[in-house]
Structure formats: structure tokens, C-alpha cells
Design a protein that fits this description.
single chain; alpha/beta; Rossmann fold; 6-stranded mixed sheet
């Protein structure tokens, strides 16, 4: 059974349709990516799954249970954490405060080993722990946004454009950590403008165009597809 399933999902901004009845599945332990041009509906899909948008129709299922229209903080507490496009950190709070807020909905206290796990993934954050988050570089802020989401101990991590605006070396670091997080057992649904990076990182992919899914396959097959190469990989 899919840990995350979307069925006939329809979303509109006012009278303008954004999603036209999409279906997708994410199995436990997978990295699945959504690729497509700007405005295809990728961010809207993640925002609807995490409860930030209310769908006009269709269902979002998590562990076999409908979370359609459930409030975002409840969905987070259930085990679905969202790292939004633009990172959404609290710029006027310290790195430590941001991490602590990530664990706010948990019943149990954060252990030292959990902080050590974060610092093993992103050693720079340990050096910056007392700095205000707004003084960090873009890459460091992305590290913090992912780390804050991990503090809620999610089963599923929704990542929206984690490489946006980052230098190539930082992109490599972020994607290495995404693979590590997944190897430790967290399921990931990834939206990423860098289609090649997304396809070599994920196991399966959905291709979105104007609010519809137009292709779905294992990433190896999509990387070999002339149509995908031409449209998304500069080939």
C-alpha cells in the first residue's frame, strides 16, 4: 500500500483551475519526483498534500487514511513534513530556535542524538547554532529548512525546489543529504526545477504539464526518453 496517495485531485485559485484531477502514489521508502515547467502545478500539489490549500475535489491519503482538508499542523503531527519553496525559516530567530520550533508538535523531548544527527548531515549548522537564521547564506538557510522539518520526525518529507538559487557545489551537498535522509528511512516527494538532478536522485517520476500528469515512469526510463530529454533536459 502507498504511504501517500493522491486520487483525482482538483485544485483551483478562485475560478482558475490549477490541478485537473491528478493521481499519484508514493511507496514507503521511495524518492519520487515531480518535474515540469513553472506553473505546471507542482508546488500546488505539495501545498495541497500538506494542507496549505484546500482541494475542490479528490482525495489525499496518508497511510490509508484521508487527510484531505485536514489542517497543516495536524498533518505535520501525523508525519508529513513540508519544506516549502523559499525555505520559510524564521529569519529573526537563531538556528537553535528554528530547530526547536521544528519539534514543537512532538510529545517527547528532542534527544541529544537527534541534534547530532542533524549536525552530521549539515556540520555547518553546528557552527552557526547561535546565529540568527537571517544572517545565513542561501545554502545554509536551505540546510536549516530541511533540518527543521526533520525535527518533527516525519515519515514523509515534501521538498519544494531545494536547489533553487544555490551554487552548484551547494546543490550537490543538498542532494547528497536528500539521499542520506532517504537511506535512513524517510520517504521523499521532491519537486525540483533541475530535472536532471531530480531524475538521477529519485526512483520514479511524474511529469506535470498545466495541472495534469502527462507521464509517469521509473526515472531510468524517463532519462532515456527523447521527449523528456528534449523538453526538460536540454537534449
Amino acid at each position: 500500500m502507498s504511504i501517500l496517495a493522491v486520487r483525482n485531485l482538483q485544485v483551483a485559485y478562485g475560478t482558475i483551475p490549477a490541478l485537473h484531477g491528478i493521481d499519484l502514489d508514493v511507496e514507503k521508502g521511495e524518492i519520487v519526483t515531480l518535474i515540469g515547467a513553472n506553473g505546471a502545478g507542482k508546488t500546488t500539489t505539495l501545498r495541497t498534500i500538506s494542507g496549505l490549500l484546500r482541494p475542490r475535489g479528490g482525495q489525499v491519503m496518508f497511510n490509508g487514511r484521508s487527510i484531505t482538508g485536514v489542517k497543516p499542523h495536524v498533518i505535520t503531527a501525523m508525519g508529513v513534513s513540508h519544506v516549502p519553496e523559499g525555505r520559510g525559516i524564521f529569519a529573526n530567530l537563531t538556528v537553535a530556535d528554528n530547530l526547536e520550533l521544528g519539534a514543537y508538535l512532538r510529545k517527547e523531548k528532542v534527544t541529544t542524538s537527534e541534534y547530532e544527527r542533524i549536525f552530521s548531515l549539515f556540520p555547518l549548522l553546528k557552527e552557526r547554532i547561535k546565529q540568527n537564521a537571517g544572517t545565513l547564506s542561501g545554502g545554509e538557510q536551505q540546510m536549516l529548512a530541511i533540518s527543521r522539518a526533520l525535527m518533527s520526525k516525519p515519515s514523509v518529507l515534501l521538498l519544494d525546489e531545494p536547489s533553487l538559487g544555490l551554487a552548484p557545489q551547494m546543490v550537490q551537498t543538498i542532494f547528497r543529504v536528500i539521499r542520506e535522509i532517504n537511506a535512513e528511512g524517510t520517504t521523499i516527494l521532491l519537486v525540483e526545477q533541475n530535472a536532471h538532478m531530480a531524475l538521477v536522485t529519485a526512483r520514479r517520476a511524474y511529469v506535470m504539464e498545466t495541472g495534469r500528469i502527462v507521464a509517469a515512469d521509473e526515472t531510468k526510463a524517463l532519462l532515456a526518453s527523447d521527449r523528456i530529454k528534449k523538453a526538460y533536459l536540454g537534449g
